[in-house]
Each structure stands twice: as structure tokens, then as C-alpha cells.
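Follow-up to my earlier ticket, as requested here are the two runs.
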Amino acid sequence: MRNKYTVLVGALSAQLTIAGLYAWSIFSTAIVDERAWTDDQVLITYSIAQFIFAFSTIFSGRLVDKKGPKITLIIGGILYGGGLMLSSLATTPLTLYLTYGVISGAGVGFVYVVPLSTLIKWFPNKKGTITGLSVAVFGGGSILFKEVISFFLENNDVSNSFLYLGIISMIIIVLGAQFVSLPKGYEKTVLLKTENDFTTKEMIKTTKFKKIWFMYWLAVIPGLLVLGAAKNIGLDANLGVAAAASLVSILAIANASSRLISGSMSDKYGTLNVLKGVFIITIVSLLSIGLFSDVTLLFYVGIIGIAVGYGGFLALFPTYTNQQFGSYKYGSNYGVVYQAYGLAALSGIFIKTIAGSYTNTFIISAVAGTIGLIIAFSLKDKEKLTN
């Protein structure tokens, strides 16, 4: 027997588990200390994982539309947990790029789309709220996994920590998959396409899709960089080691809270209106930390604001995609839109390498965010789409 709350628990338990990705900075500092690899070598692992995570949603989105959420979750659990276990054998950065970056990254992509595409079918009148809850669990779960990973690293070396995390993750995700399904009778209605529904081919021909994709790319660059290198950024800003490590939890709370609040606000005030507000918060925060990083209070306000903006974007763009292009092929459609996130994952480390410092990177990202805000103002929430 299935009811929407059973499905909710099953889906969110899997979503919570892949949140270990956002606690990467805990692993990264341990790897640098234990193996003497450079910070950039280790950060590239995270960037690859984020890129593959996004890229794999093209395939996982199609799979969940065709075969359903259960099989998609099981595959995701095997990939994510298996990649972590294989990472325990990695002795070079290149090997870690393959095991954690590619295999575990793909697993995250297969798990991530299931709650987004499945739960809105169980809660059709609360799309913003349920999407916000789903992505909030993903973002906020890093608080839990910061502690889990830290515990493993305090009692084991990096290799065994990867192994234990992989075993636990695979079990939780595969178990959660057993409780996830589509609403009864949904399979009979899923083939009914309304005039407001777009296939993926139809969607990518629209001007609105191109605007949304470009806007998404610009929006999440700073948040991805900050969450992946939180501890390093804190150390770069001359915070103590303990204070720098605490940024992981602080940013996770800001990230998760923003996802939940933004999703709920979109149901009340309109997704596009909230999206514009989140862009403004992000731009102001980037300028704050970029221009006044030596002021501790402004540093914390700025970096928390970036996490708030990032969380908001991750809640709002899935909802906006569904509103504009329909539920008919939502899994596939959002998988394509989500490729902007993958490009952003690589863009952040590229910009940081070129800019030479986090401070310059934040200022450049503020300019990119301003362009995204301009695009947002060029969109209309109730605009009728045409090919």
C-alpha cells in the first residue's frame, strides 16, 4: 500500500543521503592533508561530480518518465554508493575524478530527479512547497553528513571513510526506493498531453527556454563554488580552522532554509517575482563579500546571502520549468534545463583560476548575476509560449 506520505519519506530519505556531496569540503581538506594533493586538484573532483550530476539528469529524467521512480532510484543508489566505495581505492587525483566525480556524480543525478518529478504528482496543489522541501532536504542534509564524514575521518583514514559512507548510502537509497511509486492510476493519465504541455523538443525551440537556461547558469555559479569550497574560503579570509569548518553547517542551514521558504513563497507570490528577489539578494551578497571581505561581519553576511540565493534558485527553477512547460515530460524537460547547473559547476572553478582569488571571483559573479536579473525582468510569468 502506498500513500503520499509513505512516498514522501521514501523519496526524501534518498534525497537526504546524496547530500553528502555538499559536504565535500570536509573530505577535501582531509585528502590534502593526508595525500599532499593541491587544493585545486581536489576541488576539481567536486566540480566534475557536480557537472556529471547535472549531465546525468538528461538520462535519469527520461528514465523516470518511462520506467518510473523506483528503478531510477535503485540505479542511483548503486552508482552513488558504488562510486564512493570505489573511491576508497583511488590513489591518484585522476582515479578519484572517475570514481567520485563521474560514478558517484552520476548516482546523485539519478537520485535527485526522482523526488522532484514524483512528489509534485502526489502534491499537485503545492508544487512550489513540495519542490522547496525536496531540494531543502538535499541542501540541508550536508549538515548531517558533515558530522558523519567528520566522524569517519576522525576514526579512519580517507579510504575507509569513503568505503563506509558508500555502504551506508547505498543501503539507505535502495531501501527508500522500495517505498516510492506514482499515484494510483497516474500511468493511465500520463499520456494525456494538454495544450500547456511541451515535449522536450518543443521546449528547446522556445525563446523562453533559452532565457531560463542562460539565467540558471549565471545564477548558480557563486553558490556552487561557495558550498564546494566553504572551508577553503573561510581559511582564505583568515578565519580560524574551527570557524572555517563551521561555515559548512552555517551555509547548509541558510541553503536549506532558503529552498523551503522560496518554494512556499512561490506558491503565494509567484515564482518569477520571488526569483527576481533572490537575484537581488545574491548580487548584493557577492558585492559585499567581494569588496569588504576583510570585514568579518560583512564576510559572514555576504557568504550566507550567497547560500540563501543559491538555495532559492534550486527551489525556484524546477517549479518555474514545470509551470512554463507542463508536467507531461517534466522529468526530461528539467533534465535539459538542469544542464545549466552542470556548466555552472565547471564555470566557477574556471573563473576562480582565471581571476586568481575568491574575492575577484565574487565580483565577476556579481556582474553575471546582474545579467541574470535583467533576463528575469524580460520574462513574463503568464506569457503564452510559442515555438
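Run two:
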Amino acid sequence: MILTAEAGDSGKRLDAFLHGALPQFSRSRLQSWIKSDRVRVDGQATRASYILRGGENISVTPAELPPLKAEPEELPLKILYEDADVVVVEKAAGMVVHAGAGHGRGTLVNALLHHFGALSSVNGELRPGIVHRLDRDTSGVLVVARTDGAHQSLAAQFHDREVEKIYLALVHGRMKQPQGRIASPISRDPVRRTRMTARLGTGRAALTEYRVIEQFEQFSYLEIRIGTGRTHQIRTHLASISHPVVGDRLYGAPSAIAGLPALGRFFLHAHRLRFRSPATGEWITVESPLTPELASFLEALRMKRG
């Protein structure tokens, strides 16, 4: 859709102008489209708070509206642990956790509803059972609440940073130290709204700790522990110290590496999750080994090293 700001629109915020011009869409939805670069002013991505001067051409590319309620869908699901309160699954790379713009079906929630029926209702009918998330191309361990009581218990553990979250990642470059921590706050990138940044010194507090497992000539294989769960946290923090995750083009990694097979995703895997049982308070630890494509890529790198 192409809209034109008139002289009388001078001084209006972009999101307010769009809400007036497109009343069939909520303001929050329009703001999400602005953040994901689906709205451009004279061909340029900008912020929701952009102040119009009048005369601008504004293009809007709507995203698919998600369903009002997630529906069961027969999809593959690898279950790592389950009891009456929680389910721990291995999320596949490429699978979105829950419905959103452009992803109405084929999500982890659709698969969970097919396998388990009822889940926690705390997060509503679009995100039943979902306590935390993994990025689309991140694989690995994810815990889901089956009851509202379990959901509240898990949410409190995540909030109080009691849950142990361990990831495995391959990054570009050799780390200068065998271990380290990154504590830069994370905020939305003001230029590329689809990604985050840790270079502004402002935003939400975030803590990422890493330990080198194996060094290569141009890469480092890391074990990563996060104390917070910010959007794209590991990817953002590692890119901020010039060590982007292999395959993560959004944060500066090259699309291909000479002499190595195409990966088709980024090399980030949620390896271990440790939390307290909502029913007994006892610790539950669930691990997921590297997926076959990540293990093969790592082995190819070792063979290349000789």
C-alpha cells in the first residue's frame, strides 16, 4: 500500500498517521511492521516516532495476520523429558516457537497442541505453555508448561535467573582469552530494526559468559552461559566483540566459508537447561547434543585443520 502524507499531516508521528490512515489495523501491529522494515518513508526504513513533514510517500507491506487461536497440527516433535507439569522438547532449527506475523502454522506450539492437547493458558491461546523462546534458527532444549501453576513457577525461576541455560556456538575469529563475560546492555538497532545492538551503551541489562572449548585457525567453539534472556542476546553480544556466530548473516557473518559445506542456519544450539520441578522443587537437568548438521560442520572444520 502506498500512502502520501499531506501538508496537514506535518508534525504527526508516523505510527499515529498510519493508525489514522489504516484504522483496520491496531497501532501495536502497525508499530511491529515499522520495526520489521515493512514501512518505509520515501524508500527509507525509520522509527515509529518519526515526525512527518508533509509530502512523504509511505509504503506499507502488511504481514500475514496470525490466527486468534493456535490450532493443533501434526508435526514432528522430539520429546526429551515430560511429567505432569512440564514438557522439555528439542526445538528444530527453522521452526518458529509460536504464531506471529507471517507464521500462522507450522510452529512448535501447533506441534505441542497436537501431541499434548491442553497446555498452560497463562500466555493466552496463541502461546499456550510457552515460558521462554529460542530464535527460529537456534536449535535445542526448550521447556513448556503443561499447567498454569507450572507456568507461574517456571516464569518466576526465569525472572529470578535461577534457570541454568547453556548453549554451544561456533564463532568467527580466535578468542583472545579462554573465558570471558559480556555485560553490555542490549537495545533495538536504530538503523536495522530487525536486529538488536549492544554498541549504544543503553537498553536492557544483559549478561553472557563464555568458555572456549576448542580453537581453530579462524574460529572458536564456545560453551555459553546466559544470565538473562534478551532478544538475540548471544548473537548480539558476540557480534559486539567482533566474533559473530557462524552463519548469522544478520549480525555480520559471511554467507559462505571457503572449503566448508553450506550450513543453511547459524551455529547456535541450546545444549542444557536446568530448572526446579514445579511440583517437587528438585532440580531437573535436560541436555541435547549438537544436531547432525552442526556436528558434521564441526567435524569438517577439524578435518580441514588436519
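The only thing I checked on run two: The longest strand covers residues 164-172. Let me know what else you need.
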